[in-house]
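[worker-b] picked up task from shared queue
[worker-b] task type: protein-ligand structure
[worker-b] ligand name resolved to NAP; SMILES cross-checked against name lookup, match
[worker-b] sequence length check passed
[worker-b] input payload:
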Amino acid sequence: MRTKNYNIRTAGQANIPVLGLGTWQSTGQDCVDVVKKALEMGYEHIDTAQAYGNEKEVGEGIKQSGVARDKFFLTTKIFPDDMKFEPEKLKAAAKKSLKDLDVEYVDLLLLHWPDDRVPLSETIPALCELQKQGLTRHIGVSNFNIDHIIEAKKYADVPIVVNQVEFHPFIKQDTLQAFLNNHHILLEAYSPLARGDVFDNDIIKEIADKHNVTPAQISLAWILSDKHRVAIPKTSNPDHLQGNLDAVGVELSAEELEKIGSLASSNGRKIEHPDYSPEWDD
Ligand SMILES: NC(=O)c1ccc[n+]([C@@H]2O[C@H](COP(=O)([O-])OP(=O)(O)OC[C@H]3O[C@@H](n4cnc5c(N)ncnc54)[C@H](OP(=O)(O)O)[C@@H]3O)[C@@H](O)[C@H]2O)c1
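[worker-b] inference finished, payload out:
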């Protein structure tokens, strides 16, 4: 990793830069360009997934940036589609990701969604084996509820370092967060800008004006005010990259943190989840 002090969160042996670039819906040349620019300007963390269909473009952006592989944290995810969670298919899928990304390893390999068709007793050991083989430095999960994580941990002989879930000011994840904290698993916030909804909230706008920053930065600063979280805002717009990264330096008062924290309604999910989503904790 570069030693630039833009904050690292640690879980297991993983040191994860707190703010990464999300790439869902970044496609084609825009994806290549934004990944390249992000790495050039100092982003140290990129998030992609097989399901995003952009691993080749992410890989091309990495290559064009000229930034060495060991200088940034790279995550991809395996989708349950086509029973890829079957151990052998899962391993083949991981290898295909590395090939498309044109890298020797990723830093974090996630199961993108739980999949009741294939038991975690099969998929988690396969994931652990990929880590031991060096294809990924660390493993984690995404969209897992507490029960899934309890089950997954039974079969993991390496740490599960992350659960990547929806998180932003309009959703409560208190129960899940407390559980993850107890188990030294970071909450990785996806859709941290509520896909743009934070821009229209009066309280967030008012606090942003006071700090002379953007609502995006306030949402990210609020998420990152808790040392057990990382965030991966997506942008395909190079003009938004620097501001999002600079959110790491925005400090909110206790009163502001509480005001933003009170925006969430219980179970107030903002993002449409697929019908195979699990029962969420609240
Ligand atoms: N594990 C999962 O199941 C899962 C699910 C969803 C997402 N994710 C990951 O999380 C990442 C982020 O989540 P997301 O894409 O759902 O939503 P998000 O990051 O909350 O919001 C992205 C939206 O905000 C806009 N935006 C970003 N920065 C901005 C800025 N500074 N000013 C104005 N607009 C800005 C983007 O448009 P522009 O591109 O025009 O800037 C885009 O429309 C994804 O890309 C993906 O990597 C994971």
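[worker-b] attaching auto-annotations
[worker-b] The chain is about 40% helix and 15% strand.
[worker-b] releasing lock
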